[in-house]
Specification:
Layout: H1 6-15, H2 19-34, H3 36-40, H4 48-59, E1 63-69, E2 80-87, E3 98-103, H5 114-120, E4 125-130, H6 152-170, E5 175-181, H7 183-193, H8 195-200, H9 202-205, E6 208-214, H10 226-233, H11 236-245, H12 247-258, H13 268-279, H14 281-292
Parallel strand pairs: 3-4, 3-5, 5-6
Antiparallel strand pairs: 1-2, 2-4
Helix pairs in contact: 4-5, 6-7, 10-14, 12-13
Length: about 300
């Protein structure tokens, strides 16, 4: 077996002339450019429209409820806790029974709503839910759960179980307005229209008298966001290499900016949240399952036809 010594490697490099240095220079130049989009993002504290509500959110008292949940219609099976962050002044506003429930989208958690919540804290009681697998909610590997785990109906059933416990803990009259973004919109629609969920969790669904859907997932739309699909298929090795080279940071930052109506209002923290979620396999795998099970797929790409 041939063994390459340090001297042999140097001799080989010398024979190739300046090629290694050229390749290294190109690599460093590429990596330097990779950081540009991310570092152009401003911290939320330096964006006038976001600084005040962000600070109000961070200063708010979070009455965290970690609600035990189980597989739909299977008590005791695959138990996992779902986080409900209860914020705002109880009895605030003209409708003291009203609670606004926020459901975030994919590759996110309840902190997505921090600017909206910061503006509403003094006016309404707010419940910010971390979907199972992300944020403060418990995460279980998709492979350790059933075939429907992390799909919209499965998520909606778990969320309904958590809301039942939040309602019971609150006591008194409670009326719910559901606000859902992206995948959270699909979960909200399941709460409204899925007959099994409506029957099993009537104490929740019958209290819902208003829904706000923000860019809700529509499985009939034959378009797939390339960045989302790439994240759904990313392996541990790809994520590791992306972190080392800065490519993950750049890819996430570009995706966030490209999907913004006003990129100047996108804070660095928004990219940081997604980078952190993707960097940890415990949260990335549930999030990937949410993407791949949000609509029928052919095993290779999302099939939203």
């Amino acid at each position: 077996m041939a063994v390459l010594t340090e001297a042999a490697l140097r001799q080989s490099a010398a024979k190739r002339g300046r090629a290694p240095l050229t390749l290294l220079a190109l690599l460093l130049a590429t990596l330097a450019s990779c950081a540009s989009t991310y570092h152009r993002l401003l911290p939320e504290a330096r964006i006038d429209a976001l600084a005040k509500p962000a600070q109000a959110f961070h200063d708010a008292r979070d009455e965290l409820l970690l609600a035990p949940t189980h597989e739909p219609e299977q008590p005791g099976v695959h138990e996992m806790r779902v986080a409900v962050h209860r914020l705002g002044r109880a009895g605030a506003g003209t409708d003291p029974a009203r609670v606004i429930v926020f459901l975030h989208g994919v590759l996110a958690d309840s902190r997505t709503w921090r600017y909206v919540a910061g503006e509403l804290l003094d006016h309404r009681r707010l419940w910010l839910v971390d979907l199972p697998g992300v944020g403060a909610s418990e995460a279980i590997r998709p492979g350790d759960l059933g075939p429907t785990a992390y799909s919209p109906p499965w998520l909606a059933d778990r969320v309904a179980q958590a809301l039942e416990q939040a309602i019971a803990a609150r006591g008194g009259k409670t009326t719910l307005t559901i606000v859902g973004h992206s995948l959270g919109g699909a979960v909200a629609l399941q709460l409204l229209t899925n007959p099994h969920i409506r029957q099993a969790h009537a104490d929740v669904t019958e209290r819902i008298d208003g829904v706000v859907l923000l860019a809700p997932l529509d499985a009939n739309v034959p378009l797939v966001n390339p960045a989302v699909l790439k994240a759904a298929k990313a392996t541990d090795m790809q994520i590791l290499l992306g972190r080392i080279t800065g490519a993950l940071q750049e890819s996430v930052a570009r995706s966030v900016v490209d999907n913004a109506a006003d990129p100047s209002k996108i804070p660095r923290e928004e990219a940081d949240l997604k980078i952190a979620l993707l960097s940890e396999s415990a949260t990335r795998r549930p999030a990937q399952a949410m993407i791949l099970r949000a609509a029928p797929n052919d095993g290779q790409s999302l099939d939203w036809r």
